[in-house]
Every structure is written in C-alpha cells, then in structure tokens.
Specification:
This protein is an alpha/beta fold. Helix content is 39%, strand content 17%. It has nine helices and twelve strands. It has a six-stranded parallel beta sheet with strand order 2-1-3-4-5-10, sandwiched between helices. It is globular, with a radius of gyration of 19 Å.
C-alpha cells in the first residue's frame, strides 16, 4: 500500500531529490516548501499534522554556515527549535520522523572518521543549531532516524562543483591561480545517491532490519577541498594554489576533518556513494 510521505524543504537541492526518490517507489509525496509551508509557523505545522503523513522527511534547514554565524539565534530557531516542532507534529500522528543533519556537529579534531557514537562537539553556530535539532527530534519522536551527511552536491548551480568551475574559469580568464583550501577534509555526497539511500534506510527500519536512531550516509572516499577541485577541474588549464583553512577568511569556523564513518549503513547493505 502506498505511504503518504511529507518532505519539508522540497524545493531544495536534497528535498527535490527526495520527492523523486519516494515517488519512484510508489509513495504519495507531499512536497512542502516555502513560501506556502514554513516550518517556523505554527499554523503550517498544524496543517502538517492534518495531512496525516505516515512519514515526515525533514530536509528544510538554514544551511548558510556563515549566515548562521552572523545570526546564531535565527539558526537555532530554524535548525533547532523548528526541527523539534516538526518532530512533535509527526509524533502526534504517529508518523516516522527523518531528520537530515550534518558532519558539522563534530569539531574535526579526530585523525579518524567519526562514528555515530562519537560525542558531537560543534565549532560553529550552524553545527550547534543542527545538534540542537537532532536532540529535540530524538526526544519528541520515538520512531526517528537522524541522518548525518556532508558536502552535498548535485545538478544545482549552488553546488561546489558548479561554483568551483565558475571560479576556475574566471581565474583562468584573468591569468591567475585558483586558491583552494588544502587541509579541510570531508565526504562529497551526491544528492542523487543520497535520496534513494535514505528511502532504502527508511524501508529497512520500518521492516525491523535497521534500528531507529542515527546513521551516517555520505560519499566515499573522503577527500580535501583542493583534491576535489583538482578532480573537477582536470580538463581546465587552471593552476590550483593550495591554501590553509586558517588563511581562508570567513565568518564561520569550520571543522578541518569532520569525515564521517559510514560502516553502520554499509553493514545494512547501503553501499556508499562514489562522488567521483
């Protein structure tokens, strides 16, 4: 029997792929996005409960890391409190709640990939707000899945591959090297792989094969920003000049090596996505 699946942030890079993934397996998908649906508005959350979905995939978030650093209260309101409110609405109708989170709940100080059981220690307001969301979701909804991922990309012009290519073409035209951070490591994750992987994990949890709780779903292998750029720009005659994270001026401090261990999901048969 088809399920009714509500996807918040359905117009976003991941949200739009989630809509496709769940529709492709026969589910009825409720694509919820601003301005018609805003997770910070109580009437919209009441409407979510009235729609009575069987499953709520909460992909809506404020993902501007530097913006969150400039306005941490707003970040906490959107990424923390509103996530908890969405989970409470889901719990009232006994819907499964899936929360999309981030590798930035970790401080990046370990010399190995982070597992789901490692203690989060966020460095920036974005990570703080997403961790608050994780905890509020876990408290509000007994049947929940928290998915941590990293460095999302896809066909959108907002993705790192498109942005770095545009920057490289400009640098090439101006006859200068392209400076890219060498010592920030992560997991580039293709949303076109991630969305079906989330759908698979939900099915495993509903079938009793996977436990409710936290999972890392992210691309492999881990890489640095500079090496990812080198791969993406291999066909362009642009010189890449490595720089250190400490020298990259921005409003937010980001973890240097918040690489995610994906072995828990791999053990369930969810093969990691290859970003290359």
């Amino acid at each position: 029997m088809p399920r009714r699946v509500a996807v918040t942030g359905a117009a976003g890079q991941l949200g739009s792929e989630l809509v496709k993934a769940f529709e492709s397996i026969g589910d009825e998908v409720l694509a919820l996005a601003r301005p018609e649906f805003d997770i910070t508005r109580a009437p919209d959350l009441r409407r979510l409960a009235d729609l009575r979905p069987d499953l709520v995939i909460h992909a809506a978030a404020w993902t501007d890391v530097d913006g969150c650093a400039r306005d941490p209260e707003r970040a906490l309101r959107i990424n923390g409190e509103a996530a908890g409110a969405v989970a409470s609405a889901a719990a009232r109708i006994d819907a499964v709640m899936v929360q999309i989170s981030t590798n930035e709940v970790f401080d990046g100080s370990l010399d190995r990939p982070y597992t789901e059981d490692d203690e989060p220690r966020p460095l920036n307001p974005y990570g703080v707000s997403k961790l608050a969301g994780e905890r509020l979701v876990a408290t509000a909804a007994a049947r929940h899945i928290i998915i941590r991922t990293a460095w999302l990309f896809g066909a959108s012009q907002r993705s790192f591959p498109q942005k770095i290519r545009a920057a490289a073409e400009l640098a090439n035209a101006e006859g200068r090297p392209l400076r890219v951070v060498e010592d920030e490591w992560g997991n580039p994750t293709d949303v076109r792989w991630l969305a079906p992987a989330i759908a698979r994990l939900v099915d495993l949890a509903l079938g009793g094969t996977a436990a409710w709780g936290t999972y890392h779903l992210a691309g492999q292998p881990p890489t640095s920003r500079a090496d990812w750029a080198r791969h993406l720009l291999a066909d362009l005659p642009v010189a890449i000049e490595p720089m250190l994270l400490v020298d990259y001026r921005r409003d937010s401090r980001v973890p240097a090596r918040a690489v995610l261990d994906v072995s828990r999901a791999t053990a369930l048969g969810i093969a990691p996505g290859s970003w290359s």
